[in-house]
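Hi W., the coenzyme A complex you wanted:
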Amino acid sequence: MLASPFAFLCDADHGFLLGRVIADEAELLTIAVDPLHRNRGAGMALVASFLDTAKQRGATTAFLEVSAENPAAIALYAKAGFARVGLRKGYYLDPQNRKVDALVLSRQI
Ligand SMILES: CC(C)(COP(=O)(O)OP(=O)(O)OC[C@H]1O[C@@H](n2cnc3c(N)ncnc32)[C@H](O)[C@@H]1OP(=O)(O)O)[C@@H](O)C(=O)NCCC(=O)NCCS
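Structure:
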């Protein structure tokens, strides 16, 4: 049986992640780690928790969007097994109102 729509928060001492599952697809909506506590594994732990919860809720594929100009997040997601499946040109506006592409990443769960 497929999961019904479900939004969830993965919490850590110095960060959080919001995700949701709809049918057999999970989406990582946002993730943030306190700047004073980055590069210590919190981001990876949050993504692992997201994948665990999504799997428990019946998801078989995970998706997310990330700015093409966010190398830290892109590296985190690559390490977590995500690969690029799409490109949204000019999807974000940066603080200078400049259009920035979004990468669409996915992985099986
Ligand atoms: C992206 C973010 C969540 C990473 O959190 P983190 O706790 O620092 O990540 P981790 O320590 O678990 O790092 C895991 C991997 O990500 C990559 N990574 C993390 N920070 C990086 C950086 N500044 N530069 C390059 N790679 C980086 C590395 O591959 C790292 O593995 P390694 O330590 O073995 O090299 C954090 O930088 C953040 O909160 N950024 C601001 C919010 C944001 O951009 N969210 C993403 C929106 S889509």
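The two ends are 16 Å apart (CA to CA).

W.
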